Amino acid sequence: MFGLHYNLERSAIGMVVAIVLVASIGGFIEIAPLFTIDETVEAAPDMRIYTPLEVAGRNIYIREGCYACHSQMIRTLRDEVDRYGPYSLAVESQYDHPMLWGSKRTGPDLARLGNKYSDAWHSAHLDNPRDLVPESKMPAYPWLLRTQLRTDDLANHLAALRTVGVPYTDEMIAYASIDAFGQANPESAQASGVAERYGEATNIRLFDASGQRLTEMDALVAYLQVLGTLTGATAPTQTAEAE
């Protein structure tokens, strides 16, 4: 074995061939499961897509690095299911680009966070976590309440997501900016269009408790409030695998 490796190191062509061969084997192992993706992803006819406001909130979530301390994947272990709720299914990440499963938890998993706390709780927690959880190590994000949300590019975001398989219609893309405002302003004329395009179950309300303008806090809270609620495929009767 060592003699073979020594000879490969002395032959540039041989070393290149060996590297290509090993990389090809690793690549095949990673790519092969994609050919069975239709068999591994559960069917969820009720799965809905993110609204423009929720897409903006998800972008802020990524921008602020929230994924570095919070995962969005509950494993099938009993202690995880008991603490966080039903384990995550592949279909729940069907429209996530990129996926935010995470690899570590400094804070709790957020896969089932939607509607667990009130909008006011989320706004206060993001503004200064220690006002609600004195021992929290989470940084504060007070600028979210002060920063007006940019909406003029939301149509481009939806169009880009459509190119990778998210079923946004031309109408959804055309009304992206209007729908973002309408979702956070339930008394506005634009609110009804949000429900028509995204479903009656869509959260339409004052997420940051202020109807004066659309803020980044509105968007991030709107996103957090739908985590784990986009499909009913995750039945509460799921049982954990003992390990």
Automatic annotation (TrEMBL):
Transmembrane segments: 12-35
Domain of life, per lineage: Bacteria
Keyword annotations from UniProtKB, A to Z: Heme, Iron, Membrane, Metal-binding, Transmembrane, Transmembrane helix
Residues annotated as domain Cytochrome c: 52-228
InterPro entries in UniProt: Cyt_c-like_dom, Cyt_c-like_dom_sf, Cyt_c_oxidase_monohaem-su/FixO
Keyword Magnesium applies: no
One Pfam family from the record: FixO
Keyword Ubl conjugation: no
Identification of the protein by name: Cytochrome c oxidase, cbb3-type subunit II
UniProt organism field: Devosia nitrariae
